[in-house]
Design goal:
single chain, about 500 residues, alpha+beta, 7-stranded mixed beta sheet, 10 helices, 26 strands, about 20% helix, about 35% strand
Amino acid sequence: MKKILAFILAMSVLFGICVTEGISAYAAEYKNNEFTVSTYDMKRPTVLKKGKGFALKGKLKGNKRIVKLKISVYDRNQFKNDKSTTKYPKKYTVNLKDYIKSGWFSSLPSGEKALVIKAYDKKGDSIKISLNFTVLGRAKEPVHITKKCKITANTKNVKNALDGSDNTKWSSGKMTIKLPKNKTADGVYIKWFYAANTYTLTSYDSDGEVLDEYSDKNTHKLLNNYYKLDEDAAKVVIRLKYTRKSQGIARLRVYEKDKVGVSVQQWKLLKAGECDLMVVSAHRDDEVLFMGGTIPYYNKVKGKNVCVVYVSGSGRERHREALDGLWSMGCTEAPVFMNFSAGYHNGIKGTLNDWGGEIHVISRLVEQIRKYQPKVIVTHDVNGEYGHPTHKTVAYIVQKAVKAAGNKSKYKSSYKKYGVCKVQKLYLHMYPKHKITMRAYSKPAKELDYKTPFRMACVGFDKHYSQHYGWNMYSKEVQKYPSNKYGLAYTRVGYDTKKNDFFENIKE
């Protein structure tokens, strides 16, 4: 089977939280041997609220009679169909609305899905059309082979790492994981109770030779870590030291090769100087609520390395939600958590005092800027969007830090470690000068499975469950502060003329 024409998106229609994307006439053509099928005016879901129905629309036209049609929804984390139906149209032109009504989608469980349509001719040749979409809400964890492993430990409560809770833990000791002989393991996924841990994770082949070795010295310090295994791995040994700051493993899973769900987080740690765009967020959800499609657009559509810096907050739940939200938007670069205290502080001055003083706060941010060397930085409104003092403080310190990062006489400790960083542009949300409008955030993109970047941000915010009690992407409190409106507050490369791209005038 060969896809010979690319998708061209014609329109998007919004009703409620269900989004359909229209594929215009002649939009796509598929071929297998002598059998060819074209799609016409096809409309299908890209994001669905759980329980929301949608009637599949559009036509399939074959150069041969389509004698069999199989339509299914495949779960990309469970590796199985949620549901499927088979029809026998025996027609050259198949009108999909005759076969899939609205209620067919409404019973789907939450998660990352693929709508798979297979058309067959009378010789048995088939054409496969696969289109990804998301059903919002809490999904089942991806399928894994942990139960097929033999897991032992020299200390008690190893079962706490194997249950379904992130609130229990295996705190310390030596854990041995014997991998199943009839399966090839792809990796070990660990959700730590806290991000800082002292450990080694070593894999061995059947002869006892060391294959891979990881430790707290050579991996990022996030709550979620994925440890890739050599395909010859037969055993994994984890040695974990107990400390009050770590408290061990909350959840451990082993995944099979070629069956690692799309929701299993495998973070890439950006090296010094690899960042194109830095998004500085006051809280762990502001990057989607108020900066909308910025992350998915530049990361996935434009192919930029994006580093997200969360300034405040320290709770495990919000940390985990931030990781889940970024990953669901396609961001694979590990974020930075500065962990200044959350809460509603007394203005900019009060916030900085609570965080250790202006010099301390700016020096820490300057260090992150010098470390990652971003070309462009994007952050909050100087008025704090709806007036939040933490948002105001972040806008204030970012402006100070951008200038200081390029001055070798400022904050000499990070200068000696990383050198200066001459940020080329700084954009502030809703800044009143040198305004730009990111219209691309409302345009469906092939790289986002034909979702718009804003719609991807909605998927990201869906993971911030603790914040759903008072916020959503369509609330009046959020819509008053359009996430596609920015102003250029600082530049080394001149002012924008097209006013629709953070990277205008920046040479690659």
